[in-house]
Amino acid sequence: MSEAKDSKEISVEDKLRALYDLQLVASEIDKIKTLRGELPLEVQDLEDEIAGLNTRITNCEAEIKENEQAISNKKREIENSQSLIEKYKSQQDNVRNNREYENLAKEIEFQGLEIELSEKKIREFSALVLQKKEDLDKANMLISDKILDLNQKKEELNEIVSETKQEEEKLREKAKSIEETIEPRLLTAFKRIRKNAHNGLSVVYVQRDACGGCFNKIPPQRQMDIRLRKKIIVCEYCGRILIDPELADNESESIGK
Question: Cα separation of 75 and 11, whole Å?
């Protein structure tokens, strides 16, 4: 009986004040969450970029080794071809007929072509090694910058978490205190509207003859009823609770003190 009596004693205007006060506190908590919510994403993006750069560096180093090994193989092939050429030239001095001489000449010519092909491949592999080393240098420079950015972001995040934790706790205590003054039915409606609103606004004031949430026009008679503060009025389009700008200004000033 006493709860019902207390509920009747609270005027509609006081109910509206309490609801808007709760909205202001809830919006401040949302700001903290947004501020803290963006930094972890930035940190995660940087960590992903660094992981990608590490993979690029590993791949570059592997390709450099692969091409350097290919260069070594081609150099050995050149040495082998040169040895064969010397061997075939020596054999030419002891041939028994022209046919043997011509066959050896063809082998010498073939090994010469093999040397030219190997030298061409060495130039190609060397160019690839040079390009990959340039890519590696760029990746190493970039990853150094990213690591610096990451460390700064982590410090900033830790600082904000440390600073905002206390502020958020105070705001939550204030919100809890305000909630205790609001009747359960209205509080449930407030939370339901807030959950469904994309910007978390359950209570908005009239701006330029329109709802401050969805910006649909409000009829003059309805605006008059809102200014009188005699009953809870919701937007017929978005369902948000509507208050007049003067009440909003007064509560914004009082809640900020």
Answer: 96
Q: Tell whether 222 is covered by a domain.
A: no
This prediction's pTM: 0.54
Classify residue 59 as exposed, middle or buried by CB count within 10 Å of its CB (0-12, 13-18, 19+): middle
Q: In this structure, what DSSP letter does residue 23 have?
A: H
Residue 200 in any domain: the answer is: no
- 43 within domain boundaries: yes
Residues 6+ apart with CB under 8 A from 205: 20, 212, 242, 243, 244, 245, 247, 248
Number of independent structural domains in the chain = 1
**CATH (domain of 63):** 1.10.287.1490
Phi, psi of 251 (to 5 degrees): -75, -35
74-97: per-residue pLDDT in tens? 999 999 999 999 999 999 988 889
- For range 179-192, the mean pLDDT: 94
Query: CB pairs under 8 A, 24+ apart, for 111-119?
Result: 111/81, 111/82, 111/84, 111/85, 112/81, 112/85, 114/77, 114/81, 115/78, 115/81, 115/82, 118/74, 118/75, 118/77, 118/78, 118/81, 119/74, 119/78
In a domain, 68, yes or no: yes
